[in-house]
Design brief:
By secondary structure, the protein is an alpha+beta fold. It has helices at 2-7, 103-130; strands spanning 17-25, 28-36, 42-46. It starts with a helix and ends in an 8-residue tail after the last helix. The model has no long low-confidence stretch (mean pLDDT 85). This is FAD/NAD(P)-binding domain-containing protein. It comes from Streptomyces gardneri. One of its GO terms (molecular function) is thioredoxin-disulfide reductase (NADPH) activity.
Length: 138
C-alpha cells in the first residue's frame, strides 16, 4: 500500500510533521497548518482531503495483566466469540484484529461483542432467577 501511495502523483507526504490547525472555508476543508516536529516551524498546506492513520500498534496498555494479550499486544479472544479470559470481558475491533484494522471491521466486531455480552448477562440473569442465593461471581 505504501509503494502504491508513493507512486501516486496526487498524494503528497509530510514527514516529521504534525497538524497544528485544520483550516476550512464555507464548512469545507481548505487546508492544514503543519508544524515541523524538529524545528517547530509551521507551514500551510492546501488540501481538500485529509486521512489520519493511528498506526498499527494496538493500544492495549490499559489491559495488561487484566486479560491475556498475544506477543504483539493484541487482546486474545476465544474465537469465534469475542470473549476474553476475563470474566464478562469481551473485546472487539482494532485491539483484536491483526489483519484488517479498519473502522468498518471494528464496527462489525463491536456488534459481535455487544451480542456476546448481552448473552452473557442474560445467562447471569437466568442463573440468578433459578437460584436466588447463587453467587454471580464465577
Amino acid at each position: 500500500m505504501q509503494n502504491r501511495a508513493f507512486a501516486d502523483d496526487k498524494i503528497s507526504f509530510a514527514f516529521d510533521s504534525e497538524i497544528a490547525e485544520i483550516k476550512s472555508e464555507n464548512g469545507m476543508l481548505a487546508g492544514v497548518a503543519l508544524r515541523d516536529t524538529f524545528t517547530g516551524k509551521t507551514r500551510d498546506l492546501d488540501a481538500t482531503g485529509l486521512f489520519i492513520a493511528i498506526g498499527h500498534d494496538p493500544r492495549t496498555e490499559l489491559f495488561t495483566d487484566q486479560v491475556d494479550l498475544d506477543d504483539e499486544g493484541y487482546i486474545k479472544v476465544e474465537a469465534p466469540s469475542t470473549r476474553t479470559n476475563g470474566t464478562g470481558v469481551f473485546a472487539a475491533g482494532d485491539v483484536v484484529d491483526h489483519t484488517y484494522r479498519q473502522a468498518i471491521t471494528a464496527a462489525g466486531s463491536g456488534c459481535q461483542a455487544a451480542l456476546d455480552a448481552e448473552r452473557y448477562l442474560s445467562a447471569l440473569a437466568d442463573i440468578s432467577k433459578a437460584t436466588p442465593s447463587a453467587s454471580l461471581a464465577s
